[in-house]
Amino acid sequence: MKEFIKNIIASMTLEEKASLCSGLDMFRLKGIARLGIPSILLSDGPHGLRKPVFDPDHLGIGQSIPSTCFPTASAMASSWDRNLLYEIGYALGEECLHEDVAVILGPGANIKRSPLCGRNFEYFSEDPYLTGELAASMIEGIQATGVGASLKHFAVNNQEYRRMTIDAIVDERTLREIYLAGFEMAVKQSRPRTVMCSYNKVNGVYASEHERLLTDILRKEWGYEGLVMTDWGACDDRVAGLKAGQDLEMPSSFGVNDAKIVKAVRDGTLSEAVLDEAVERVLELVYDAVENRLPDYCYEKRTHHVMARQAAAESMVLLKNDGILPLKKGMKIAVIGAFAIHPRYQGNGSSQVNPCRLEKAYCELCTYTSEITFARGYDLRSDVPDERLITEACNIARGAEVAIIFAGLPDSYETEGMDREHMRMPESHNELIRRVAEANPGTVVVLANGAPVEMPWLGNVKAVLEGYLGGEAAGGAAADLLFGMVNPSGKLAETFALQLDDYPSANYFPSGPRTVEYREGLYVGYRYFDTAKKAVLFPFGHGLSYTSFEYSDMEVSASQIKDDEELKVGVLVKNTGDVAGAEVIQLYVRDVESTIFRPEKELKGFDKVFLQPGEMTRVEFTLDRRSFAYYNVETADWHVESGDFEILIGSSSADIRARETIWVESTRPGVSVPDLRSTAGIYYNLPPGNLVVDDESFKAIYGETLPSNIVLEGEPYTINSTLGEVKETFFGRIFFELVHNSARNTLPEAEDGEMQKIMTEKMLEDLPLRNVLTFSEGKINEQMLEGLLLLINRKPAQGLVRLSTALLKIG
Ligand code: BGC
């Protein structure tokens, strides 16, 4: 293959080479008929196939072909089941084969830094180890079918606010240990065919032109050999991107950037060898797809639906159960909440799939009992409690043995392009739960949401089932769990704090206008709550079952190891209850005493086992150097400081059932361990209250002066200013309205038109001017933008001249 591709490249013109480095349209790559190079199709991802129906050319949030909507990533992650992720990946691959899609755009491996990130439902966890393991399994499943995966969004894309321009300021150690570690595991273990770089900047440089990230770390350190593509519209400076290791710009730049590549090679500012390398990777992807194409491939739609239901049931987390669950068949139940008939099962944005079949919880519950009533409880379009609907709900609750409320976050709360502003559920849901729980003490809440919510009513209800956004069969899965047909086995892949202010990022999310500082450093999720000893609503790794498990006979293979040796850890787990069930066994490592600050404990292993009543099994883990290491920024390497380490085995991060201490001896005792006690003491001694990290302490770990986060009065607008920013000026406002109207007219009508409108408006606000070139499909050219910028920057005469020249040119 290598030889074949090299020969093709040798026969290409410079223009042809440059043309292959950007998309043909929204989702296709260009082909070259003269050379017989075919065009291939990419499609979103990540929890279902979203192949546009008619026109792969439109903005990409319109109609798509029906496909199986599996649980979203934050749901799937709660299964902690590598095999399940592999199976779902495989099923996604099959659907791609059937539709002749060469690459599915997922999974997303970004860390859930704040509960507010609008795209949290597309991400797995607050923990990089869990993220990496699950992403790797999913990629392996997808790629086992011959279809390519796209690991995204590389990197440090943890918010939607100003996602196309924000500069994530993160210290090197945090970058390595938290934000890159999941990507690193997935890349090394599963070799995704493509990696998608993110929109944002990382420490001052756009991810799409970040040589350190794309070449030094991804390729040289991690050995990545696949293709790097941009997120849609993430390309800033095309030539700089190529030099940094970005091969493919998506979507099309309508020839604008191809011409820049040609010019750069001609004038000697870009070596043709760099271009050839990118072209080689594009062609490798294309011919790989050709080789794996199975145009007549068919899959069993029904089987995939069943799989979606099983996956949802495995992913839902039983957060609380005061003995009311499981329900008995035939029981008299009141089903309350519009979500029971209008399910909330996935998030908005590019990942939104058109499900083959959608299960409604109400209908599914009817298969378990005929003694069933229903009340809407709240208005889907309003957050304000509706007295009439609540009274109706209370009335049916009073007449039932159990009231089951389906509540959570409406569509408008969780979407790509927008972060949440708070962690509360709509008051219409909260008030409904309070009142129904008063009317019937046997109240159960089933939640639909992609990330944590506050639960002010928790003490008043008997049980809570966290359903997450469980995909097209979430309704049936919830019914199966509530009636005990399936035993819950999901565990939280993230901490549910009591309130928003408790999160370590609370004061530093989403910040802006220029930068977002990751001042909490390594202390994300349980790493923070455990270290600061702060109470939470539900800890990381928590999840109840209808049976119980006993842990015993923990064994470690040695009491002392060198850091280049492996340690085997084993534990016996027994199902001590009356029903079969699955348990997720979690292994955490705690550095007992260290010179550098370290979180209280970190997840380094997990396994899920299914046991019949009375059955027992031995679960084994293997730990290696990385399990004990921290990232040493001075030596730019992972390092273990000699000392005692506790190996903790638990049923959750807060429920440790067995522990052993071992000594790990460094094989590099000469390496000095950074001691930041005097300059960054707060990281050694986290205060119990709301986390505030002063400039000096953050600077001490960041290692440099912090970049300015202020937009100066009169600062000129640039090609990277957003439409939201320029609309503050007279000409900018006119331009914004023009773009806005044209976007409105070109967007296809969708069922949830209102939500799409809000999302599009938000996305336009955050869109840098440079992207108008692409999104206008070439109708607006660079010269026009230059003219516009002159106008906006109060140089009307020059601006008008430039604009009229541009307009005259296009006739
Ligand atoms: C999203 C990506 C997605 C792409 C294509 C972007 O806006 O960030 O996750 O794959 O669009 O739809």
UniProtKB/TrEMBL annotation:
Pfam families from the UniProt entry: Fn3-like, Glyco_hydro_3, Glyco_hydro_3_C
Residues covered by the Fibronectin type III-like domain: 583-653
Cross-referenced PROSITE patterns: GLYCOSYL_HYDROL_F3 (PS00775)
Keywords, in A-Z order: Carbohydrate metabolism, Glycosidase, Hydrolase
Gene3D superfamilies: Glycoside hydrolase family 3 C-terminal domain, Glycoside hydrolase, family 3, N-terminal domain, Immunoglobulins
GO molecular function: beta-glucosidase activity
The protein's Enzyme Commission number: 3.2.1.21
InterPro entries membership: Cellulose_deg_GH3, Fn3-like, GH, Glyco_hydro_3_AS, Glyco_hydro_3_C, Glyco_hydro_3_C_sf, Glyco_hydro_3_N, Glyco_hydro_3_N_sf
Gene Ontology process terms (BP): carbohydrate metabolic process
Superkingdom of the source species: Archaea
Record-stated family: Belongs to the glycosyl hydrolase 3 family.
Protein name per its UniProtKB record: Thermostable beta-glucosidase (Glycoside hydrolase family 3)
